[in-house]
Design brief:
The protein is about 30% helix and about 35% strand. The chain contains three helices and five strands, in the order E-E-H-H-E-E-H-E.
Length: about 80
């Protein structure tokens, strides 16, 4: 796995995973605000962008908090 910062605008998710995306969880939001991101989201490279495969709540919270980049683990 490769760890790096990726711009949120370069991350997308596919429709089959959309059911897993819920509104930003307050507990996750508080944790990120107090402690930062403790676990990176997981993505796979898809052409010039990245497909989100794990960390949907963290992704939504990051969007809500105005993050421009997020720590990711790329799964090859």
């Amino acid at each position: 796995m490769n760890y790096r910062l990726i711009a949120l605008c370069d991350i997308e998710f596919s429709v089959p995973y959309a059911y897993r995306i819920v509104s930003a969880n307050e507990q996750v939001q508080k944790s990120i605000q107090q402690n930062g991101v403790l676990e990176p989201i997981r993505v796979v490279k898809k052409e010039e962008r990245f497909l989100l495969i794990d960390g949907f709540r963290r992704f939504r919270v990051a969007q809500k908090l105005g993050f421009s980049k997020f720590s990711t683990a790329s799964v090859e």
